[in-house]
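Suppose a colleague, Dr. K., hands you the sequence of a protein chain of 108 amino acids and asks what its three-dimensional shape might be. Before reaching for any lab equipment, you can write down a predicted structure in token form. Begin with the sequence itself:
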Amino acid sequence: MTKAEAIKNIMARIDEIEDAYDYGYIGIRVSENEFTKGEILDNSFVWVNGEMTDEELDGTCAIMLKDAKLANSYFGDHVAIIGSDSMEYGQDLGEIILRDAEVLEVIA
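The predicted structure, expressed as tokens, is then:
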């Protein structure tokens, strides 16, 4: 499944996904690296002008489910649904940062 197909699949299932998991916050993570269901993801890093810095965030960046379409603009071919009970807003449109995020579903 391509990234675009995976995100389209997520958009069609938003209510189902929200009802399926007992986390307070659920997001979409796009990455160059493959995901493993059940893994706890590493923290993301701050990016400045398209370059990654050494500054680590307090969680993993994701896109809010309701903003799933925005995930198409993120770099990488692998897509997962991730969850956490701790969230803060990121700097980008639709971005959230999930602390100790768990991979709930591997979509692509």
